[in-house]
Design a protein that fits this description.
This protein is α+β, with helices and mostly antiparallel strands and 156 residues long. It is built from four helices and five strands.
């Protein structure tokens, strides 16, 4: 397995994996997610791949086939009245091909993102997990993550 920055040649495979993760979320929250869609179009992906503030890391097999991805965003917290300024590496999305789940790809992608955060001088790594996605919650807890805050709702 190799981990590298995503390239435009990866957009087809990224789209397939984006469909997979969307379906996980649609099963949990069909009131919010539209099944059969993806979060990003090919043109969106090409724009993101070219943006250094939104790095996308891909795990590839020996044939350079994408088997997982980690979409990240570098976010700056400016100084305000009650918060010190800091830089965050936000993991927007992490997905691994169902055929290789459980083989360490997720951990490798997560650890790579953490190492990049250190290299970039980030204070921390953050992400959101949809309530009901227990598998993801367990994984991130195993990686040492702890809740930062709770985002709550009331459906009307």
């Amino acid at each position: 397995m190799n981990i590298r920055r995503a390239e435009n040649k990866d957009t087809g495979r990224l789209t397939e994996l984006l469909r997979d993760v969307l379906e996980v979320h649609a099963a949990i929250r069909p009131d919010i997610f539209v099944t059969g869609t993806t979060k990003y179009s090919v043109s969106d992906l090409e724009e993101i791949i070219g943006d250094d503030s939104r790095p996308v890391y891909v795990a590839t097999d020996d044939a350079d086939r994408v088997i997982g991805y980690c979409f990240c965003q570098i976010q700056e917290q400016p100084k305000d009245a009650c918060l010190v300024p800091f830089t965050t590496l936000y993991i927007d999305d992490l997905c691994v091909d169902p055929e290789v789940r459980g083989s360490g790809v997720s951990k490798a992608l997560f650890e790579h993102a953490k190492a990049e955060a250190v290299r970039l001088g980030c204070y921390h790594v953050t992400l959101n997990v949809w309530t009901g996605n227990e598998r993801a919650e367990r994984f991130y807890e195993k990686m040492g993550m702890k809740p930062l805050k709770t985002y709550m709702e009331v459906v009307l």
